Amino acid sequence: MLTLCMAAALCVMPLPSRPSVGAIRWDGWFADNVWERNLQDQTWRNRLPFYAEEKDGRVEVRSDRQEVMDREIAFAVQAGLTYWAFCWYHPQSWPGADSYNYGIRLYRSARNKRGLKHAFILQGGHLGKKESWPETARQLAEMLRHRDYHRVLRNRPLLYVFTCEAIETTFGSREAGRAAFEKLREECRRQKTGDPYIVAQVFSAEAGVQWLDAYGFDAIGAYSAPDWGEHRERPYTDLVTANRAFRERIAATGRPIVPLLNTGWDGRPRLGMQNYGFYANGPWYAQPAPDELAEAARELRDWVRANPTAAPAQTALIYAWNETDEGGWLVPTLVEGDARIRRMGEALRGK
């Protein structure tokens, strides 16, 4: 009995002193991007990030420069973030898809990352052609091996997958999709990358269980977790309540969780765009005061730390760093400055 107890103790992995916290980074802010059109109206000027500029009566929102990235890295560290989760698009997804990968290129070329790590968010419909998957898996395994890639549970690269419902379409069947992700794990083993800790990002706990069973993923999380209902404004506290309820529903499944906090949710600037009418299907939320956001982040961190069985990876994700026209951001703005990141940094680094 004593021998068994000692063996069990040796197998227990020590928890990190403080849970890691990441933020989603979606890099649509390159030259001639379509998204900055959504921010031209004066109504949305309070959202403009620090790198926005007014030229000839129009607002340009461009972060595809090294000097901007270097400042963003410093801001992210000030905010208490451990890593950015970059949305990654396979270059074959559509003409111009690789334009959205400028952020990871600039991040990796930064001379001083200040200890900020990174992870990736794959999307089920943007994984490239199925015929190219063996090479894609090889490239992904190599990318996950990067020295600044964020790892959990000692040596497992953290990998998120959004729009899991599209995996079946991409590969032709669920069985083929499962085989594809097993191929990725196999390639990671071959390259000594470490077994990826794959998190399904979903909008319901039931969907999370479905994708873990179908594709062998490791945990359930989310990209965003707002409430649904009447299309009207609601207070930010309602959004935090929705995040909390979503977290509890996932935890109730008994599957591992990577919980999420929304910094906001208000996609009204996108309503005029084709195929973006779904933003009218639920509420939008008033933007939080910096203290409100900081308190919500502190609660998230404390929940992860207090629930190591439910959240074994001891990490959480924030929506978002720079989803400016969708209504979720931490990046400093021209109007508010760095108030959000200052207060959040104090909260996340505190006891």
Provide a quick synopsis of the model.
The protein contains ten helices and 15 strands. It has 351 residues and is of the alpha/beta class.
Notable characteristics:
about 15% strand, 15 strands, 10 helices, two-stranded antiparallel ribbon, alpha/beta, about 35% helix, 9-stranded mixed β-sheet, TIM Barrel, globular, about 350 residues
Instruction: Give the number of DSSP strands.
Output: 15
Shape: globular
Helix content percent band: 25-40%
N-to-C SSE string, H for helix and E for strand = HEEEHEHEHEEHHEHEEHEEHEEEH
CATH topology: TIM Barrel
> How many separate helices?
10
How many domains comprise the coordinates? Answer: 1
The assigned structural class equals alpha/beta
Query: What do the pLDDT scores average to?
Result: 95
Major sheet, described briefly? Answer: 9 strands, mixed
Strand content bin? 15-25%
Which regions contain 5 or more consecutive residues with pLDDT less than 50? 1-12
Give the class-level CATH name. Alpha Beta
* First-to-last CA distance: 38 Å
Radius of gyration: 20 Å
CATH architectural name: Alpha-Beta Barrel
Oligomer: single chain
- Which homologous superfamily in CATH is the superfamily? Glycosidases
Q: How is this structure best described in words?
A:
By secondary structure, this protein is an alpha/beta fold. The protein has one domain: Alpha-Beta Barrel (TIM Barrel). The chain has 10 helices and 15 strands. The chain has helices spanning 2-11, 66-78, 102-109, 133-144, 167-171, 174-190, 205-215, 236-252, 290-306, 339-349, and strands at 20-25, 52-55, 58-61, 83-87, 117-123, 151-152, 156-162, 197-201, 219-221, 233-234, 260-262, 284-285, 315-319, 322-323, 328-329. Strands 1, 4, 5, 6, 7, 8, 9, 11 and 13 form a 9-stranded mixed beta sheet that branches. Helix 4 crosses helix 6 (174-190) and helix 9 packs parallel to helix 10. The longest helix is centred in the middle third of the chain and has 17 residues, at 174-190. The chain is globular and about 50 Å long.
